[in-house]
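Reopening this ticket.

The earlier resolution said the output was attached, but the attachment link was broken on my side. Pasting everything inline this time so it's all in one place.
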Amino acid sequence: TTDLAATEKKMDAKTCRTSIAMWATDSVGNRYRLWSRVGFFSIDQTFDYLFEVNRTFRGYIRTTIIEANAFQKIVAPVLRREQEWRGFCFPVWAVNASGDKKARIRAALGQTLPKRLIWLATGAGKEFIEELKVFPMSDKKLDTLDESEKAITYGVRPASDEERVRQDDEEDERKMEIKN
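Inline output:
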């Protein structure tokens, strides 16, 4: 997931960081933050990191989630052109974040943190923890939590072994009904 830096009213450009992370979800619902880059990056450096994470975890990433609000609307089409230029493609999903940012973060983390469903790999959790310590009091340190909210909200939990067996059984039953 990606939260690209942008300035907002009454905010200094140096308070907005870009947060890029690779999240994984298991069939139980655990969320794993495995890789991250957080900082003040140029758009070129941001794209370099997006390509780095997609190459590093090639075959494991289902999609790259990018916020599509405000200036960020142009990022997905520009990123697709960059993929053509670099000769390496990966799926991009542009999502619109609506409503109050803190409320979205609170809703996503409120469902996962109390149940101990968030795990941070070494080197991928520093900024997440820093921002969590001052949330919701800070209006300036929300970049990593905002990016994380998207991963938690839009990330897909894979089916468990039992669910896959049940789905296969249900499909077999439907096929039998069609034959009869």
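Reporter confirms the inline version is readable. The beta strands are 2-3, 18-25, 31-39, 64-67, 92-95, 118-120. Helices lie at 43-56, 75-86, 101-112, 126-134, 143-154, 161-179.
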